[in-house]
Structure prediction request, 398 residues.
Amino acid sequence: MKSIRELYKIGHGPSSSHTMGPAKACEIFKTKYSADHYRVILYGSLSLTGKGHLTDVVIKETLGSVDIVFSSDFIEDHPNTMDLIAYKDSHEIGRMRVYSIGGGALRIEGETFEETSHVYPHNSFEAIKEYCKKENIRLYQYVERFEGASIYPFLMHIWQAMQDSISNGLTDKGYLPGELNVERRANQLLHKKMRNEPSEIYENRIVSAYAFSVNETNASGGLVVTAPTCGASGTVPAVLKYMQERHKFNDRKILQALATAGVIGNIIKHNASISGAEAGCQAEVGSACSMAAAAHAELFNLTIDQIEYAAEIALEHHLGLTCDPVMGYVQIPCIERNAVAALRAIDACGLAYFLSDSRKISFDTVVETMFETGKDMPANYRETSCGGLAKKYKFNEK
Ligand code: SF4
Prediction:
């Protein structure tokens, strides 16, 4: 498996696969071909939700003089495919086919394009667990061992960026960009005074406020951390921020939890998918919930079996979750969905604490199941905005 540095990336929202990935593809292509004009053809999900996800905006910003074609074709190899063509004096001088495979990562056709090499010798939770038990180390120590001590300054940078995305979302008021007229609600969620509010509801409201703040920052094109994607960027920070405030965990402990969550995200990314276009929202918010549950379990020093169970419960109960962003914006259902996932992550950890000795399903099994379920999902439910809420939504309905 690759470094968790490849999983946690800081970038502009609203979508790692639809903005960060295409922007990077354009940068690589521009470096290769110094052209006076470009043409970019978007296929599949990139074409169908590209406008709402601001794909066309980042392409124009990166390439300058460019024609963008929203093709109705689907390319079998990957739902997020784009062709880039370079012209000089009206003659084609080069082309490249790129797949935006999720979390801002790319695959370039015909090239063994690798941003980093593999740093971990194990690829499944089972193998990692066996190693950790034999060596008597925790998951964050496993990360330390293969990434080196320099992983901590990196994780601190990531944690700071997560906290910034929370603060920014809490400060901003008004409406999110786009035609949906979605009101920013993070600030209200945090500060609104409710009479006779039960304490459990109050606590859930605070966790949700942090998730809303990150996802509202994301929806407006602000800087977020892919955890594991931009669309699913609110769940992990919400749980960590809430737990740090309530239980006074120091930053070192938060970084250890982030490292643990990184192992979970990495296993899903390596063996399945973190792309909504490839496997539905179970691969994005489901994965984020699983990472957050593992992080939460690490904060409370749960055993590796309990951490596995927390991550497994969190992913298992997102199986089948579709991706159906209304009008192509990463707003409905995405923002609320991150808040619900943060709450579920906390619940999953609670269940794992009590029930891990009687569990039947391994984390690796649920990861495999999630990917297979995603492959079986019709394209309408994989980030195309052709089905589900995106199809049923009526403009201005309440
Ligand atoms: S529904 Fe889920 S997978 Fe789809 S864009 Fe929203 S957060 Fe991403």
Q: What stands out?
A: The chain has 16 helices and seven strands. The chain has a mean pLDDT of 95.
